[in-house]
């Protein structure tokens, strides 16, 4: 089924809005398109909620395309006001049973188009389905996704091999993990809440937003407030190395998130690219490295509660030489850009 288009007048209006969004918006926190619920059992109904946290280097998202993997049947997408909904149907590789009847074909791709989701905003794209495939516990099911924007596109279509962490990929597809039973999900949540952050290095806080450890000075850690239900948040700060040798940021943890990653974002031939810095981020002697929207940044993955403006998010950075340092990330407004926050009078 081909994509429909709005009237030329509506298209021009949408294009004007998207163009203005590119001009006035700042780069949003870079993060994967993810599923709000990342675990489910085979043989059950599953509501897939795809979280889209940003556009393409400041440009508004105009189309979202999601491929449906084999074994996920009975897909019914939720319409969105202001968007055109299209369904591409096709034959399944095998026949499945649904309500006592054989099902041999169904939706293979869902397309929402004609919208204008600003880079400063967050939205969700939803469908219901039934997990009918012969999926085994621990198996990852991938939903390759493409964001098409007013300028460029972002392709989340890399699929992890068996045993591979999807977050090790540059552009991982949203992934659903099959679990044995419902108690497995609850136990995983309990395990995450017991993460121990007691072993911390000696640090000095010399101001509300300045932290030092050895020769390193970390200034102005901040993050953005998150919409309700969001599972990811970016982390930004500046690191200055006053020592005579280079050091390396090799990791981070936070009691407020399942795990924390260090990423780099860049544009390549009009396509947004992201890669995790598996070897860490080098801070050379006498230099300052800034983690900011659109460049190097931290990602708090699977945050445990909504971040609200005025709150703080505790975290610990680990450096190769200097060791560990405790930080407090100030939570600014949704859509906040870099630089110092405005003073209140």
TrEMBL record:
Cleavable signal peptide: 1-31
UniProt xrefs under InterPro entries: LpqE-like, Lxx211020-like, PCuAC_sf, UCP037139, YcnI-copper_dom, YcnI-like_sf
Residue ranges annotated for the YncI copper-binding domain, each copy included: 32-178
Taxonomy, superkingdom: Bacteria
Entry annotated with the keyword Amino-acid biosynthesis: no
Keyword set, alphabetical order: Signal
Protein name per the record: YncI copper-binding domain-containing protein
Organism (species): Afipia massiliensis
Taxonomic classification: Bacteria, Pseudomonadati, Pseudomonadota, Alphaproteobacteria, Hyphomicrobiales
């Amino acid at each position: 089924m081909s994509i429909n288009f709005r009237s030329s007048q509506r298209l021009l209006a949408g294009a004007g809005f998207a163009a203005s969004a590119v001009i006035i918006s700042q780069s949003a926190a870079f993060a994967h398109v993810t599923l709000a619920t990342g675990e489910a059992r085979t043989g059950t109904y599953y509501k897939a909620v795809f979280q889209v946290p940003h556009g393409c280097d400041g440009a508004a998202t105009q189309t979202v395309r999601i491929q449906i993997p084999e074994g996920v049947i009975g897909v019914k997408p939720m319409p969105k006001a202001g968007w055109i909904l299209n369904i591409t149907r096709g034959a399944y590789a095998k026949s499945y049973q649904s309500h006592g009847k054989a099902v041999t074909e169904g939706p293979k791709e869902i397309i929402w188009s004609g919208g204008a989701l600003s880079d400063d905003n967050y939205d969700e794209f939803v469908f219901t389905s039934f997990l009918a495939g012969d999926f085994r516990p621990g198996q990852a099911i991938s939903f390759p996704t493409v964001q098409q924007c007013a300028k460029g596109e972002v392709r989340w279509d890399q699929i992890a091999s068996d045993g591979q962490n999807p977050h090790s990929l540059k552009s991982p597809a949203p992934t659903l993990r099959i679990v044995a039973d419902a108690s497995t999900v609850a136990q995983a949540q309990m395990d995450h809440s017991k993460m121990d952050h007691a072993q911390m290095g000696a640090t000095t806080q010399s101001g509300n937003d300045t932290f030092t450890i050895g020769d390193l000075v970390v200034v102005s850690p901040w993050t953005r407030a998150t919409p309700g239900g969001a599972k990811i948040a970016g982390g930004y700060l500046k690191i200055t190395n006053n020592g005579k040798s280079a050091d390396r940021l090799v990791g981070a943890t936070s009691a407020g998130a399942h795990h924390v990653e260090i990423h780099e974002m860049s544009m390549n031939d009009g396509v947004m690219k992201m890669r995790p810095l598996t070897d860490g981020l080098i801070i050379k002697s006498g230099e300052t490295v800034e983690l900011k929207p659109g460049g190097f940044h931290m990602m708090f993955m699977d945050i445990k509660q909504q971040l609200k403006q005025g709150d703080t998010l505790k975290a610990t950075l680990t450096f190769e030489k200097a060791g560990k340092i405790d930080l407090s990330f100030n939570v600014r407004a949704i859509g906040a850009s870099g630089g110092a926050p405005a003073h209140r009078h």
